[in-house]
Structures are given as structure tokens and as C-alpha cells.
Amino acid sequence: MALLEVKNLGISFGGLRAVDGFNITIEKGQLYGLIGPNGAGKTTCFNMLTGVYTPTDGTITLDGKDITGKKTVEINKEGIARTFQNIRLFKEQSVLDNVKIGLHNQMPYSTLTGILRLPKYRKVEAEMNEKAMELLKVFDLDKEADAIENAVKQVLKEGYRTIDIMPQAGESTEGIKQVGTAKMGDLIAERV
Fold first, then answer.
1. C-alpha distances in angstroms, 2 versus 24, 48, 60, 113?
2. Distances from the Cα of 123 to the Cα of 28, 88, 98, 166, angstroms
3. Cα(first)–Cα(last) distance of the chain, in Å?
4. pLDDT tens string 35-80
5. If we measure between CA atoms, which residue out of 83, 78, 82 comes closest to residue 106?
6. Taking the complete model, does pTM exceed 0.70, yes or no?
7. Percent of the chain having pLDDT more than 70?
């Protein structure tokens, strides 16, 4: 079974057909690219996949579950997130904290629990620290995350953007590691 399957996806804005009959099947552990000229509909496809736009036609299935037309926050919780073309990091925060910000939709405690720093807050924050370190480890950044923070920011600033299908709880990140470690590691090493 495919991790992500898109069938006959389409969207119209008024009388303009922006995307028509988009199909893709993405298998677990594989890396895919979507390329095309300006105006071809690449961003519109990503916007439909991530819930920014609701498709007028077709289906989006993630890990066997239909996510077509769901809200962005629901799709994030299912495991798809995206970055935008202008990446904005929190410069005052550590690399670990910037990664944790990307996990905010998985934070199952209330604002009040966070403000009062109740036990559930401390437990969830510890779990988020662990998960963020796992993600940093994918790119061999776990041991020296703070030491190479400026290099990472520079690599991201130079345009490395992605739509990520995040590993679910208990899943291996090995497929991501095989693809990403060498390339990102080389780019960061050039700047350290």
C-alpha cells in the first residue's frame, strides 16, 4: 500500500482550471520531486495536499486514510506538513527549539497546563525534546545542534525546502536518513 496516493486531483478558481488530473503514488522510504515551469500548478498541488486549498476533484489518501478536503491542522496531525518559500526561523531559539516548533500540532496539553507548567506539560515537553532530537539525528545534527546552528540556518536560507511526510510514532526514519544525511551533511559541513 502506498504511503500517499493522489488520484485525478483538480481545482478551479472561477473559470480557470489551475490543476487538472494530477496523479502521484508515493511509497514509504522513497524520495520524489515535483518539477515544472512557473505557473504549472506545483504550489497549487502542494496547497491541496496540505489542506490550504480544497480540491474540486479527486482524492488524496495518506496511509490508507482519505484526507481530501480536511483542514490543514488535521492533515498536519496525520503526518503531512510543508514549509513555505520564505523560511522564518526564530533566531533567538536553539536548533532544537526551532525543530520543536514544527511539532506544535502534536502537543496534547492545554495553554493553561503550559502556563502553569503542570506535570503533563513537563512529560510532553520531554517527549517533544526526544522526538526533535530524533529528527536532528536523521541529519547527524543531534550531537552538535547548537554548535552548527548558523550553518543550518544558512543552508535553509539558501532555499532547501520540502514537503515532509513525517514518520509516525514508532516508525523508522532510516529511509529519510539514507536520502538526506549525505546531502544535508555535506552542505552544512561546507559552512562550518
1. 10, 18, 11, 38
2. 30, 28, 19, 22
3. 41
4. 989 889 999 999 999 999 999 999 999 999 999 999 998 998 888 8
5. 78
6. no
7. 71
Cα–Cα distances in angstroms (integers) from residue 153 to residues 134, 145, 188, in the given order = 19, 11, 9
- CA of 16: how far to CAs of 11, 20, 24, 41, in Å? 9, 11, 22, 12
The radius of gyration computed from the CA coordinates of the chain, to the nearest angstrom, equals 18
Name the percent of the chain lying above pLDDT 90.
Answer: 29
Amino acid sitting at position 188: I
Closest among 38, 131, 151 to 85, alpha carbons compared: 38
Average confidence score pLDDT of the chain: 78
Which residues share a beta bridge with 59? 7
How far is the C-alpha of 153 from the C-alpha of 83, rounded, in Å?
14
Q: Which three cell numbers stand for residue 155?
A: 543552508
